[in-house]
Every structure is written in C-alpha cells, then in structure tokens.
Amino acid sequence: MDVDNATACSVMYDGTGGAGSITFVRHALPVYREHELLIKVHASALNRADLLQRDGQYQVAPGELAVPGVEVAGQVLACGSAVSGFAPGDRIYAVVPGGGYATHCVVDQGMAMPVPGHWSYTDAAAVAEAGLTADTALFTVGGLQPGQKVLIHAAASGIGSMVVQMVREAGARAICTTNSPDKVEPLYALGAEQVLCGYGPDFYQGLCESGHGAVDLVIDFIGGRYFDGNLSALKPGGTLVMVGLLDAFEWQANFVPIINKRLSLHGVVLRKRPDAEKRQVTQAFLARWQPALASGDSRRWSRRSTPSRRWPRRRKKWPPIATSAKWY
C-alpha cells in the first residue's frame, strides 16, 4: 500500500446525540511518529465512553482524539523509525486515545499487542480495554490470590465478564451480581461460582443467604447505593476496587467499617492515565495473559466487537448505553 498517497475515513459525531448523529468523514492518513505504528483497522469495539461521547456526555480530554473508538485491532502498514518488535503485516490489537472508528489508526508501540494466531480481529478488539482494566483491578491493585473470593457487580458487562474469567483462571472464586435473569446462565458459563440475581443494592442480603459469607475482594462498577453493602461484604483486611460509578457519583456513607475492618479502597481508570503508565499496564497484561489467550478459545475471552467494514450499514443500530458485554 502506498501510505503517502492513501486516504482514510473516520466516524464522527455531529453533536446532536443518538444514532442519527453519526457521520463519516474522509481525510488524509493519520500521521505516525517515530515510536508509533500506522495500522489498517479491521475491527473496533464499542466502548461505553464512545456512547457517552456520541450523546454529548463525555468531553474529549486534551491529548485525546475527537474521533471515537478506543479499542482496535488491525494490520500494521508502517512503523516509525524507533519502533522495534513490529513490522508491516503484523496483526495487532490495542487501546488507543481515540481514533479507532476509522479505516486507519495510529498505535503507540508500547500499547500494541500481537493478535493470537487463531483469533479474529473482532475477537481481539473486544478484549483490549476490558482485559487491561480487569487485570489491573484484580492483580495490580486487588492483589488477587488463588482461593480468594471475589464479589463482582455488573458482572455481565464487558469488563465484568473479563473479570469473571480471570478470577476463574487464577484459581479464585467469583461471586457475581446481576439484575437480569437472562444473564445468570451466561455468567455461570464464564466460571461464576454463584450468581446473585435481582437483589440490586440489597445484594449483601443475597450474599448472606447464599452461605458464602464475607469476601476478600470487591470489584464494583456501580458505586452509589452499593457502597455500604460493599463494606459489609468484605472480610477484615479486604479490598474494594471501584472501576465505575453507574449508580451515582456521590454517596453519603458510614466509613466506620473501613477503619474497624482495616479495609483498602482503590480506584481504577485506564483512559486518563499517562502514556507511560498505559504501557506498563499493557506489558503486565501481556506477561500474565498472553499464553492463556494464545492457547484458549477466543470466544471464551472475547464477547462482541464491530468489524469496521460494517459501520455504514450498522450505524443506525448502535444501541443506547449497554450493560452486557461488548456490542456487535
């Protein structure tokens, strides 16, 4: 391919919100720097931030691209002068600071991950951010050990479903919550030991009724009304990791259990971290999971993604804010 004369096409939002706000813009290829790869995008995953941005609820931060799409998979077309370990023709997937909903995209070499040989591009794209975030929450921050019990809220979501599988692979025990009966069996199929359905913020009651007792680690995407129950559910010395705030950004809580039970509270975010930290997160994920990903069934790890060639005829079908896995 003649990258000097080629053009690209990107998805853009016109600011009106909803599926009708999606437009397509043709432009020059994105410019790649010495440590970056230029890739032809074959698939992008639909991320919650993309939907919020579409509806005017997410402001693009300095350093991020206005073109949506933060999870991509594709083929390397060209490499910057300082790139090592990658070459044109390689298949890679990555988390990017926007720009993924396009025919071509620039990827930092430290964020690029090789697509396992038997995986499709669509499978790889759906793993990118979910995998990095789940690994950070469970291991880097949560310190998960074999045999421990992990309570996972919104467990059927994109990151949540990845968390469930990683807990299983680590020899730990996944206890999941969901408010949708149709998500119960899929969660058991992913490796959940117990699924608490329909309790909402009263999940602690369900945990007690299940006979499981207190847990070592809570991975929470909801916050708000779930906060007090999280503190009750944790063992002394346990850890609460906040990954999302779907219920509320603010909540008045009783902090006495944090002191009395010597609990640890952490927050996890990926997109807003400095590039150097994102590279560290990527390499930690690869070191821990690339062998398992390469030898396992891609559909077991990957849920849903969007092949770039399908954007024009699928744009009117983009859903409202989703709560189950990745959208395809």
UniProtKB/TrEMBL annotation:
<protein>
    <submittedName>
        <fullName>Zinc-binding dehydrogenase</fullName>
    </submittedName>
</protein>
<dbReference type="InterPro" id="IPR011032">
    <property type="entry name" value="GroES-like_sf"/>
</dbReference>
<dbReference type="InterPro" id="IPR013154">
    <property type="entry name" value="ADH-like_N"/>
</dbReference>
<dbReference type="GO" id="GO:0016651">
    <property type="term" value="F:oxidoreductase activity, acting on NAD(P)H"/>
</dbReference>
<feature type="domain" description="Enoyl reductase (ER)">
    <location>
        <begin position="17"/>
        <end position="317"/>
    </location>
</feature>
<feature type="compositionally biased region" description="Basic residues">
    <location>
        <begin position="301"/>
        <end position="317"/>
    </location>
</feature>
<dbReference type="GO" id="GO:0070402">
    <property type="term" value="F:NADPH binding"/>
</dbReference>
<keyword id="KW-0560">Oxidoreductase</keyword>
<keyword id="KW-0521">NADP</keyword>
<dbReference type="InterPro" id="IPR036291">
    <property type="entry name" value="NAD(P)-bd_dom_sf"/>
</dbReference>
<feature type="region of interest" description="Disordered">
    <location>
        <begin position="298"/>
        <end position="317"/>
    </location>
</feature>
<dbReference type="Pfam" id="PF08240">
    <property type="entry name" value="ADH_N"/>
</dbReference>
<dbReference type="InterPro" id="IPR013149">
    <property type="entry name" value="ADH-like_C"/>
</dbReference>
<dbReference type="InterPro" id="IPR020843">
    <property type="entry name" value="ER"/>
</dbReference>
<dbReference type="Pfam" id="PF00107">
    <property type="entry name" value="ADH_zinc_N"/>
</dbReference>
